[in-house]
Amino acid sequence: MTQLGTLNRLSALDTNTVADALDFLGIKGAVYGLRPLWNCPSIAGRVSTLKFHLKADTSPTATSVSPEAATEGHVLVISGGIDGVSCSDAIVNSAWKSKLIQGTVIDGLYRTFDDVHDRCPAYGRGVATISDRSQTMQASFGLPLKIRGVMVHQDDYVTADSSGTVFVPAKRIEEVLEVAERISHRRNLMAQAVRAGRSASEIMNDAEIQSISRDGPSQAVTVSSSSNPKKSTPETHGLVSMFADVDTAAVSDALDKLGICGQALGIMPLENYQKITVGPAFTVRYVPAAQPAGSVGDFIDDVGEGDVVVIDNNGRVDCTVWGDIMTQYAGLRGIAGTVISGVCRDVNRAISDHYPLFTAGHWMRTGKDRVEVGAVNEPVAIGSVRVNPGDVVVADANGVVFIPRHRAREVAEVAQLIEKSEAGIREMIVDGATLAKAREAFKYHQLQRTE
């Protein structure tokens, strides 16, 4: 297989699939925390390594990265950054524009002066405005690096997308690609079965679908209705409808006024959703996997139409509990959205399907054989909030709040009053009133004060 053929095969796979293949083969390569630093394209290529170290003096250097550090067409992988200080800047953009590199993966921070559309595709821990030229210097290139606990060598392979970054040892690339392609075939079979209306438990226990043989014919699936037979009760529908036009900010203020803790700290939307997600909580608690490991997703067959799946994975960021098959299946069954105290993967699928996901982050490594379902529809903890089955979930671009079911009506009434008052304040200031006068007219400072 030529290098071009190998890179084409790697480029055709997402990081989730490659990470699953590494798991299957017992290879450590998926790293957490190195994500796209803007809306940049995915990258896949050979690695050129570059390491920085601290300078003995504070005299500035001419550039932070020398162009010769990268082999043409490779992905530049940089380590040795300092917290709060960039270890990559405009010189990297120049190398990218000159076609010397495909992109960068930085175990540190990045800065650039160019327009976002001209930036080199970059994956790292974040961005910074402070230059590294007086604090660090290029130490070496082409030597092994340790990136987030993974040893990376010159000419290894790397692939990075919206789910994160994965490294593959060069000497194992062929077997990793073979296994990854089989896994991709299996996932395609699962997606086909989902579209045909088969249940999640049936799919998960189908030996042919779960095998990773790519040589056999795709099994025939019987098409059936994918509609969800589990409907909400009139009482639940009534409670949910009270929050349909109330955002999380107003609900949060109402919770504060009533002395209720319901704001889920650290749980954020996958994207800037324009709509509000509302529904009763269907709770799931994950625990570390036993031997042999138990179920990771069969509960989805029991989730009702309009429910919000609320998953407690104890805040773990080292393995995911939600991916593209779950997203597709949930969307087909009319599930309102998913909230996870933990991470998800296959984010492109969720975004393209407009499926609402609210999580502590995203990463590509599977939870299979790492966690299993410990309990369903029992109390769970999400961002330090206790959530009971049937509690009302309200989620939007600001985050997620939970309302105890037995207090949902009073919370909704207070939230609606707050929104009405704030709308009145906005009208007054548009008409020329001072902010102080408008706030006084609607008793703004008493709106969120605990009664």
UniProtKB/TrEMBL annotation:
Domain of life, source organism: Eukaryota
Region Disordered, residue ranges: 213-236
Protein name: Uncharacterized protein
SUPFAM superfamilies linked to this entry: RraA-like (SSF89562)
Composition-biased stretches (Polar residues): 219-231
InterPro entries (alphabetical): RraA/RraA-like, RraA/RraA-like_sf
Gene3D superfamilies listed in its UniProt record: Ribonuclease E inhibitor RraA/RraA-like
